[in-house]
UniProtKB/TrEMBL annotation:
InterPro entries: Speedy, Speedy-Ringo_regulator. It comes from the Eukaryota. Belongs to the Speedy/Ringo family. It holds the Pfam family Spy1. GO terms for molecular function: protein kinase binding. This is Speedy/RINGO cell cycle regulator family member C. Keywords: Cell cycle.
Amino acid sequence: MSTCPISISYEMSDSQDPTTSPVVTTQVDLGGCSWQGGGNGFLRFHQHQEVQAFLSLLEDSFVQEFLSKDPCFQISDKYLLAMVLVYFQRAHLKLSEYTHSSLFLALYLANDMEEDLEGPKCEIFPWALGKDWCLQVGTFLHQRDKLWARMGFRAVVSRQCCEEVMAKEPFHWAWTRDRRPHHGGVQRVCPQVPVHLPRGPGLSPPHCSPCGLPQHCSRHQLKPVSSKCPSLTSECHCPSSQNYLSRVKNAWGGDFLIVLPPEMQLEPGTYSLRIFPKPPARPGH
């Protein structure tokens, strides 16, 4: 009788810190079929439950709104979404843990692994953390590391593995989120047109002229209404609880930042900036 290869994986409980010793579990591979604490029939049933729980999470209205703000599928294409489910399974999340929070943590980690550009994935912060997201980024990244530890630090997912995940529900709309070629491939430099991210739930995603997205929203492909890009000379975004941030191009060279109070309801666009000379100081001052 031939010996069975035994692989060791590490699982961390919710309350356990990544710096503490992990709990060791064993997984035995029998003839190519994974066996873990029960028969293959039970395992397949449990995996089916996980797939259905994940797809139900994608149907949530808040998640749908988030996905609709990524019409070019730069941070949530079909492969990144498939990676999220793989991460859930590797971390042995309970079905009750298939939540918004877990999805955003896993999606951010998937972007860490696969994407070259740092800016687009920051769009996840305001959706995951709310209006005071900038004060909670450190906590979010710590929770990402805890999820990574629960996975045994196995964050690499092959394309074949993603396609096997999709094959379990091959006609689901999530797998129609194909990224277009001009958004693919290795990108080693930042885009020439700066876009201030994250924009957050309050604004439409920037218009992408290469994609030529239609001005309508489809439930299956989630192509939302998008607005044209503001001018390069002045662009601002407004999270609901923060001041307006406006980056203005200086005619004499260089950029500077203007912070406007939230009472000023300005739309993104081009504005003329006049600088008045400073009045002379009064005698004695």
